[in-house]
Amino acid sequence: EMADSIKLNSIIGNGIEYILNKNDHQRLITGLSSQIKNYILENQQLVSERVERESFFFIPKSVDSKISEKITKGLSDYFREVEEDLKHPLRTEITNKIFEFSKELKEEPKWEMEFDHIKSEFLQGEKLHQYSNDIWQSLKSSLIEELTNQDSKLKSYIKKNLDEFVFNLQNDEQFQNRIDGWVRLTAYKYILKNTQGFGELISTTVGNWEGKELSRKLELEVGKDLQFIRINGTIVGGLVGLIIYTVSNFI
């Protein structure tokens, strides 16, 4: 139901208008103009061959060559002007055409129907599962390839950040205090939130221990303290006995 309420044509139309209003499309026009200009200059031979093929047999090749040169120069100069002049008429015309298209995209019923069809096709259970699986497999393959490649930029980036983290953890006292504070606060919040659960876990765990096991665990945990208590008890008991014996025999 939520997917049905989403109007993709309006979203895309508004997105295009947002880009146009921010003038971000000018970079695309600049890049395309540069690519077209370079393509023309790099393929002058194709232009020359086409002119010769379309030319009449009685026209000298030197004339054909001049014509092809003028065509190549004229086109490359034109797209160089578009590339360098942000106020070039072609830029204005392209911008207006894109604005018209974005408006048509938002308002024309045919576009809404077209995008609804695409949306319903994409959101079908089997296809959606296939898309997500393909994306995951592609992502997993890329990660495995990156992590197994010794020259991987991702691997270098992860290693660099881990090295920095370890170094700061070992040498930066302020960073250590922040980490300690975060761990304490997180543990405190978690325990506070799950007090009953922790109590039940401890009660259940201790309740399942047998007498010998409980005695052994207590001995491991507080054995030194118990030994200290035993020694102190022996010494104190001995002293008390000695005092009683002395008093009873000499008084």
Report a brief summary of the structure.
The protein is mainly alpha-helical. Helix content is 88%, strand content 0%. The chain has 3 domains: 122 residues, no CATH class; 42 residues; 42 residues.
Task: Note down, in words, how this protein is organized.
The mean pLDDT is 79. The chain is 88% helix and 0% strand. The chain folds into 3 domains: 2-123, no CATH class; 152-193; 209-250. It has helices spanning 2-5, 8-21, 25-42, 44-54, 61-84, 89-107, 109-122, 125-148, 153-171, 173-193, 195-207, 211-250. By secondary structure, it is mainly alpha-helical.
Topology:
Layout: H1 2-5, H2 8-21, H3 25-42, H4 44-54, H5 61-84, H6 89-107, H7 109-122, H8 125-148, H9 153-171, H10 173-193, H11 195-207, H12 211-250
Helix pairs in contact: 2-6, 3-5, 4-5, 9-10
Structural class: mainly alpha
Q: Judging from the principal axes of the Cα atoms, what is the shape?
A: elongated
The number of helical runs is: 12
Q: Residue-averaged pLDDT, rounded?
A: 79
Helix content: over 70%
Low-confidence stretches: none
Biggest sheet record = none
The count of DSSP E runs of length 2 or more, i.e. the number of strands, is 0
**Span between N and C termini?**
101 Å
Beta-strand portion reads under 5%
Order of helices and strands: HHHHHHHHHHHH
Q: Into how many domains do the coordinates divide? A: 3
Radius of gyration: 41 Å
